[in-house]
Amino acid sequence: MKKFNRRDFLKAASATAAASVVAGCAQKNHTLPELPPAHGQSVMGLVVPKMPIVRVGFIGVGQRGYGHVKRMSHIEGTKIVAICDTHDTVLERSSHYLEEKGLEKPSLYTGTEHAYQQMLERDDIDIVIISTPWAWHAPMAIDTMNSGKHAFVEVPLALTVEEMWQIVDTAERTQKNCMMMENVNYGRDELMVLNMVRQGLFGELLHAEAAYIHELRWQMKEIDHKTGSWRTAWHAKRDGNLYPTHGLGPVSQYMNINRGDRFDYLTSMSSPALGRRAYAQREFSADHRRNQLDYIAGDMNTTMIKTAKGRSIMVQHDTTTPRPYSRHNLIQGTNGVFAGFPNRIALEKNGTKSYHEWDHEMGSWYEQYDHPLWLKMGEEAQRNGGHGGMDFLMFWRMIYCLRNGEPLDQDVYDGAAWSVISPLSAKSVADRSNAVDVPDFTRGAWKTAKPLGIVNI
């Protein structure tokens, strides 16, 4: 082995330092991709004329959509006008439910995958709720806005960067809302933490952790209908974070993403993809279609996002391994941290214990920091159900904003930014986890946009 003397060591150190300076300069001089030209005015903070009655159409009422019909029917100031689905059984189930409640029977559309376009020709629908397989989200949202209606889309908003831009461009050109319905933002805990953050409890925010860890292998047994019939195939199409928004939506609102900060770039890596293949071999015959798929999506994907302000966000996805459910819901600031699953808090100042020890007793924190929206509507939300009430509260808030001429809590830029993590994570995974730029769908409007406030109903 060659021996280094002091002079050799100093030369090597100088060369390393010089290389670091060059690398640092290269990073600072990194040029972001040129933004595509705008096709209309920004819809940041869009306010549309007040709607005394919000007339609603539904596309897709198989699983999520059927629950949405039920919850919408309990909200004052709404009228369900029409429903579309390719499956007659679920279509009739929704119609029958409304008639049993004494409500007017909606018009029904079915027959082909494009029957929804006939429904969109009506001029007595204000908003359309889209709860279909992921591949249909973008075309249906775009068609909805082009027909003069507001689009409300299940997660994710779309599947590719190109689709995200098409949706943003359409919203700006038509001046219509296109909200991705991220229901987790309306959970009691997430609303409380947002309230805590806005009151400065954690100090200056530094880091967040978000996840969708939910064992869903059982969905592989849904072959011809229900979510697993089409969602399973995505594990053979994309190796990245397949479903980023449930954990990412809330922490993005804590951090004012698109409203004072934005996602800058990400890097992503996946574990081996073993669980789905093993499950298929165990649960299905060798010649079954589930054993013909090449499952490439890593069982655990971890993506790190850097924001324009330099803050970090870890996002994880795992719907395969046997482990307890978690969305992480962690927010770290200069004064302490909140983490979910289970809920716990540690603060340097104004905490109930030393910050070296978690406080798991949340009662006093709920009493002091429950969000005004939950204080007013939480009991009714829990009565009407949907993931502990968050589904109903999301719909109630959507309708409230439309009827009172207020901007929605989530806009098209949020849906695009949160959803685009999926295709970009796959791009990074395929490129040895190298960094990938996140598009600025707001085209710079994030710099002056107002943070989401704490509403007082």
Write a structural description.
There is one protein chain. The strands form two sheets. The chain has an eight-stranded mixed β-sheet with strand order 13-12-11-7-10-9-8-14. Strands 3-2-1-4-5-6 form a six-stranded parallel β-sheet, sandwiched between helices. Helices cover 35% and strands 16% of the residues. It contains 15 helices and 14 strands. The chain has helices spanning 6-28, 64-72, 88-100, 115-120, 137-146, 161-174, 188-198, 228-231, 245-254, 275-283, 363-369, 372-384, 390-404, 412-419, 421-430; strands at 54-59, 78-84, 107-109, 127-130, 150-153, 178-180, 205-213, 263-270, 301-307, 312-318, 330-333, 336-339, 344-347, 436-437. The chain starts with 5 loop residues before the first helix and ends in a 20-residue tail after the last strand. The radius of gyration is 24 Å and the shape is globular. With 457 residues, the chain is an alpha/beta fold.
Summarize the structure.
Helix content is 35%, strand content 16%. The chain is of the alpha/beta class and 457 residues long.
Name some characteristics of this structure:
457 residues; disordered N terminus; 8-stranded mixed sheet; globular
Work out the radius of gyration: 24 Å
> Helical region count?
15
**Number of DSSP strand runs:** 14
Q: Helices and strands: which structural class?
A: alpha/beta
Mean pLDDT: 93
The dominant shape is: globular
**Major sheet description:** 8 strands, mixed
Q: Quote the distance from N terminus to C terminus.
A: 74 Å
Strand content: 15-25%
Order of helices and strands: HEHEHEHEHEHEHEHHEHEEEEEHHHHHE
What helical percentage do the residues reach? 25-40%
Uncertain runs = 1-27
Strand order of the largest sheet: 13-12-11-7-10-9-8-14
